[in-house]
Amino acid sequence: MATIRKIAEKAKVSIATVSRALNDDPKVTEETKKLILQIANELNYKPNIVARNFAKKTSNIIGLILPDITDEFFSELIKGVDEVTYQHNYFTMVISSHRYLQLENTLSSVLRNGLLGGLILLVPNISISLKNILSQTKIPFVLISGGMSSTNYDVVSVDNYQGAYDMTNYLIKKCGYTKIAHITGPTDNDDAKIRVKAFKDACLENTISIQKNFIVKGDFTRESGLKSGMELMSMKNKPEVIFAANDMMALGCYDAAFKKGLNIPDDIAIVGFDDIFVSQYLNPPLTTVKAQIEDEGKKAAELLIEKIKSKISVNNKPKKIKIATELVIRNSTKNIK
Questions:
Q1: From CA 24, how far away is CA 18, in angstroms rounded?
Q2: Which among 156, 157, 179 has a CA at the least distance from the CA of 168?
Q3: Which residues, 6 or more positions from 25, have their beta carbon under 8 angstroms from its beta carbon?
Q4: How far is residue 161's CA from residue 147's CA, in Å, rounded to a whole number?
Q5: What phi and psi values does residue 186 have, to the nearest 5 degrees?
Q6: 257 CB contacts (<8 Å, ≥6 apart)?
Q7: What is the average pLDDT across 296-323?
Q8: 172 with 298: CB under 8 angstroms?
Q9: pTM value?
Q10: How far apart are CA 191 and CA 187, in angstroms?
Q11: Dihedral of CA 51/52/57/62: which sign?
Q12: How far apart are alpha carbons 152 and 319 in whole angstroms?
C-alpha cells in the first residue's frame, strides 16, 4: 500500500512537504505540488481519512443514522444525502441503528468515537432520552423527523399532514369511495401519527364515517401490509379502498390481494405514501403521495454542511424545513365520479 513516505522518497522531498501538497497548502510551489500529485496518482495513494482527521482535529465524515438500510425508502434518502456531501468534499458514513436495537445506544456509540464532523439522524420520534444525548453532543447535527414543531433542533420533514389529507380527499371527492380503510405506521412514529390524523380529519370534513375495524395497525414493513391487508380483505363488509401509510405496506396489500384472488382496483383499490421507485412498476402502478424522499436527504445535508462551515452555534434559532408533497395518480384506484 502506498504511503506518504513512499511518495516523499520518490519525489525526493520531505514527508511534511508531501502532506502539505496533498492538503493544497499554498506554501508548496505549484511545480512541487504537481509532481507530488502525479506520483501519488501513479502509486494509487489512498489517504487515511481517520488519521488525517485526527491530526487536523476536524472531520469531513458525515454520519447518517437510519433505522434500516434495506428498505427502498432509505436508499433514496441515502442518495440525496450523499449527492450533496460529495459535492462539498465530505464522505457519508451510513450507520444502521437496526429495528431491534435502541437508537440511543447506537447514537451514543457513534458520538463517542470522535470520527464524525457532523450527523444526520432519522428518528421516529424525539424522546426525552434522545434529547439528553443530543444536548451533550459537540458536533453539528440535523434531524429528519415528523415531530418538528415541539423541538429546538434543526429538523427536515415531509409535509405528512397535507399529503395524507390530499390523498384522502382525492379518494372521496374524485373517486367517490365511502368505505375507506387506513393501515397506520408504528404507534410511536410521529410521521405515522400525523398521517392518520390527516386521514381522520379529511373523512370527518367530508362526512365519511370510519368503521372502527377499518383502521388497522401496521409498522411500515411489507410484511405488516400483507397481514393487515389480509385482515381487511377478509371482512364480510370489506373496504372499497385501503390507504396504506407508506408504499412498503401498500406492496404488502398487493400481495394480499393476489393471495385473495382480488383484482386491483375493481375488487379493491390500494393507495400508498412515499412514491418509492418500485411503485410505478407495480401491476397496476400504485397511486400514492410523492414524498420527495431524495429532496429530503438533500435538504438535510445542505443544512448540516451550512452549519459545519459557518460554525453556527447550537443556541441559534433552529431551522424547520418542510418538504411539499404531491399526489401521483396511477391505476390502483378507479375514478368513479
A1: 10
A2: 179
A3: none
A4: 11
A5: -60, 145
A6: 229, 233, 263, 264, 267, 268, 270
A7: 85
A8: no
A9: 0.80
A10: 10
A11: negative
A12: 9
Which among 282, 268, 225, 272 is positioned nearest to 249, based on CA atoms? Answer: 225
Q: Is 296 helix (H, G, I), strand (E, B) or coil?
A: helix
Which cell numbers hold the place of 22? Answer: 496533498
Cell numbers standing for residue 41: 496518482
Cβ(142)–Cβ(85) under 8 Å? Answer: no
Cell (9 digits) for 89: 468534499
Q: Are 159 and 194 in contact (CB under 8 A)?
A: no
| Grid coordinates given for 332 | 390502483
Confirm if 136 and 146 have CB atoms less than 8 A apart. Answer: no
Non-local CB neighbours of 307 within 8 Å, separated by 6+ positions: 118, 140, 142, 154
Q: At CA 205, angle to CA 204 and CA 206, rounded to 5?
A: 90
Give the residue-averaged pLDDT of 123-152. Answer: 82
- For the chain, give every domain's residue range: 4-43, 60-158+293-322, 160-291
Q: What is the pLDDT of residues 24-83, one digit of tens each?
A: 778 889 999 899 889 988 888 876 655 555 455 567 889 898 887 667 788 899 999 999
CB-based burial label for 283 (10 Å; 0-12, 13-18, 19+): exposed
Residue with cell 432520552: 129
Tell how far CA 278 is from the center of its chain: 16
- Of 273, 253, 266, which Cα lies nearest the Cα of 194? 273
What is the enclosing helix (H) or strand (E) of 265? none
CATH number for the domain whose boundaries are 160-291: 3.40.50.2300
| SS3 state of residue 123 | coil
**Residue 141, CB half-sphere, CA atoms under 13 Å: how many?**
26
The CATH code that applies to domain 60-158+293-322 is 3.40.50.2300
